């Protein structure tokens, strides 16, 4: 099983604090050492970093811990290979373009007997069940809406119909974003927290590091962090229910 | 106008030496300070770095100069904006997936009255003429060959038909790779060199840096470097003819 980390905010925010704790699970405080990756939206653009080294040994992970890239939507993943060899093309997150937007996807879990027929141009490059599921989702969204991007409620309804069809094949904790919203689905394990005014201090569970968010934020900032295992010890994380698909916009879960 | 750098090799090779000279043109020895990017194939996977800071000011460029990522196909670009604002989504190289392979594309030049109708899923995310041309090429390759990748000679013949249709609109120096071969097209300015046994020393034109390739290679290595302006002073670079489309495989131009 892998681990997922997502961030969705109302203003561009850096993920250095959360990524620092998360990256330690890539080979130090946990056994997820078969690669890692992170994608940051900046406007419509994406910075995409993948590495098939363990996150704790990766010079690129080291750079990201030091270099505060600001983003409103981030998806990160550390990998423990279940399907697909340890290779760069099997590292999450995966990126595709649809409707003139980049889409970023990462998955934690394992799918059994999931072998849909793919038609059209969304094809896996690597050999993971995860990338296959992502291509299948993209293909079906494109088939349903054609060449014009739907409004968010229609997109959400489509994913509420499609995602359970994948999840029926096993464990499908996943994150998907086009840079305007973050879709998350929980099969077994996912928690989130919304940090907003009044901000307090947080202490990482995986490393002896604290940050006082009141010193680095404005009263208008709102940041949702979604993760496989809570990252801090002194905050209250809200667990997802199994089967729950949750949409985050501007740092808030949408009801 | 921008500048392009490509590498095609028969064994995975690092591009630290060439990229070091090239990156200096991103704001120091030349005026290309509107962003930069580089993509490395590793097997079927791609490491893709883009930044809308000048290459000389970018911590990510600094990392790449120090961290020897080994690859058989690399495309790099430094940008001087002509069309499209200075934004991450307008930085080359661009990446799309077709036939279960990532395709990487970068362009130097300026296209006039190039506004083809796009149908299907290859759409620009940013606002450059370059990304539009890339999407048009992908769309036409997909239309011609359907869902099955053609053999290299058929792909080359298709590009020999398609590329001049873009180049008719202005300057279209470009590089395109799927990780197995590197296609290059010259409208106005492109040169290449093939480094192979017996290797000699090379001295960068843009910085006081030399490398003796005989110390870091084996007799079987072969590396083609393709660039807008020759990178070294003491080697003989071969200029492309205007309108020439050249295909590199395993470090050699294919006749």
From TrEMBL, chains A, B:
A Pfam family the protein falls into: GATase_4
InterPro entries: EgtC-like (IPR026869), GATase_2_dom (IPR017932), Ntn_hydrolases_N (IPR029055)
Glutamine amidotransferase type-2 domain sequence ranges: 2-255
Keywords assigned: Glutamine amidotransferase
Transmembrane residue ranges: none
Record has Transcription regulation as a keyword: no
UniProt entry tagged with the keyword Heme: no
SUPFAM superfamilies registered for this protein in UniProt: N-terminal nucleophile aminohydrolases (Ntn hydrolases) (SSF56235)
Protein name: Class II glutamine amidotransferase
Origin species: Massilia hydrophila
């Amino acid at each position: 099983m892998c681990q997922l980390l997502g961030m969705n905010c109302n203003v561009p925010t850096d993920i250095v604090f959360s990524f620092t704790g998360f990256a330690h699970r890539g080979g130090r405080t946990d056994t997820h050492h078969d690669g890692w990756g992170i994608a940051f939206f900046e406007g419509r653009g994406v910075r995409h970093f993948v590495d098939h080294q363990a996150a704790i040994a990766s010079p690129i992970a080291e750079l990201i811990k030091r270099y505060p890239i600001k983003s409103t939507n981030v998806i990160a993943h550390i990998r423990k290979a279940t399907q697909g060899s340890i290779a760069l093309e099997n590292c999450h997150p995966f990126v595709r373009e649809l409707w003139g937007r980049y889409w970023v996807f990462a998955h934690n879990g394992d799918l059994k007997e999931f072998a849909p027929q793919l038609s059209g141009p969304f094809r896996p490059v690597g050999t993971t069940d995860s990338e296959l599921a992502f291509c299948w989702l993209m293909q079906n969204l494109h088939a349903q809406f054609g060449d014009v991007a739907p409004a968010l409620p229609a997109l959400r309804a489509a994913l509420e119909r499609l995602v359970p069809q994948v999840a029926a094949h096993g464990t499908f904790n996943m994150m998907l974003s086009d840079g305007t919203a973050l879709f998350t689905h929980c099969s077994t394990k996912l928690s989130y927290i919304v940090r907003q005014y009044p901000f307090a201090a947080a202490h990482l569970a995986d490393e002896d590091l604290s940050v006082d968010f009141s010193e680095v934020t404005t009263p208008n900032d709102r940041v949702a962090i979604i993760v496989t295992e809570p990252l801090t010890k002194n905050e209250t994380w809200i667990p997802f229910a199994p089967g729950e698909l949750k949409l985050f916009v501007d740092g808030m879960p949408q009801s």
